[in-house]
Specification:
Elements (H helix, E strand, L loop, with lengths): L4 E5 L48 E7 L6 E6 L7 H8 L7 E7 H5 L2 H9 L2 H5 L2 E7 L13 H13 L7 E6 L1 H13 L5 E6 L2 H7 L4 E6 L6 H6 L3 E8 L4 E5 L8 H17 L2 H16 L3 H21 L14 H11 L6 H18 L5 H13 L14 H8 L5 E2 L2 E2 L1 E4 L6 E4 L4 H12 L1 H4 L4
Parallel strand pairs: 3-10, 4-5, 4-6, 6-7, 7-10
Antiparallel strand pairs: 1-2, 2-3, 8-9, 11-12, 13-14
Helix pairs in contact: 1-3, 5-6, 7-9, 7-11, 9-10, 9-13, 10-11, 12-13, 12-15, 13-14, 13-16
Length: 459
Amino acid sequence: MGAATTRAAGGAPMRAATMRAAVIAALFALPCASLRRAAAPARRLAPRLQSAATAAPACTTVNVELGDRAYPIYIGDGLLTSDATTAASYLQPHVGGSQVLVVTNEVVAGHGYLDATVAALKHGDKGAKLRVETLVLPDNDDEPSEATKTLENLGVITDYAIEKALDRKCTFVALGGGVIGDMVGFAAACYVRGVNFIQIPTTLMAMVDSSVGGKTAVNSRGAKNGVLQFRFNMSAKNMVGAFYQPVAVVADVGSLNTLPERELASGVSEIIKYGLIRDAPFFEWLEREGVEAMLARDRKALIQGVEDSCRNKAEVVALDEKEGGLRATLNLGHTFGHAVETKSGYGTWLHGEAVGIGMSMAAHMSHELGWIDADLKERCIALVEKARVPAFLPLYSPMDVASFEAIMAVDKKVADGALRLILLKGALGNCVFTADYDKDVLKKTLEYYCDDAQRTRDD
């Protein structure tokens, strides 16, 4: 079972009607190598797009196959940012009622994307009948984005919807990066027990990961005198949430024009995991040209990177929507990375930066277990560093072994008291999700990465 793909220029492609085959539950118990993508021809930097200067922006569509909840991911350059007619063709078909709430933050609104979204929703005859409300949440130096992903701000969204008397047929629109998408998706799941929502990711990280698959959540601060604050005085990432799928995702790489270099690199880092866990040809394309081209903001490379990432994720989500096993492999490096984010304080590290360190740690541990060869470990670390994110902790990091152990002990992948990890095993494109590993090797990996000698490593 895979992600069905259709392509069109100008208008919105049709949603897939049904899944092509039944999901077989026994597949979830197999190592992810058994379900990785089949080998594909060498990647092409040039996407399959129309080139006519007068044509509407071309679109590639990856469908997330979930039966009657299937939905399209529209990918292209200018789908939102070119003109209201084009943007309306991707947004309006997914608005069922007459009320829309667009939620964004002050950074995204400041770049004009909120105005473009509202103009698209209000465009034409259908748009004239829509009531569009907007809500702009904070995102600044005093309140960095991840720090705003709280139950309090979730309440701001739902209270605003109540204040505006939005009904069950309304549609929420999440316009922004992963924080906005996660929070608005969770609000949509909760408001009047569930309303439709559309994802419009404006960061590379959100386009290739958080906007796809229906994971919605906020961070929990923990009880004032509770275990979490007692152990590491910080919130628990994404511990309060729901699986709730959008009705559409509109990924316009044109919105990446305004993305800061550091955030662009963070998104490229997240992309690397797909090649490591299940798509060797994709990893080789990233090594050969993809990473450098995306960092240079080459539009064709960005479309290719987003398309291949979304197709990989859509295939996994179609098989294991609620993370019974296979979907957890998409979290390669995240258990280590979330610990780094949490201990350091939200805003210190971008998600992809912390995941870069986490993928390096996972590769190192996999090699120490004898599960991968030294060459693959070094290729992983080298590609992380090529993406311009750290592969090792800096000298100033507060991380130590005790902090890693305390934070990972409450990770969402803990089951029956055992920490399950995603580790590489075998050739490139193979991995396992398991608690069956030598715990001494985990301890030694934490010690190795917390050692000052490794923090200052340049090679």
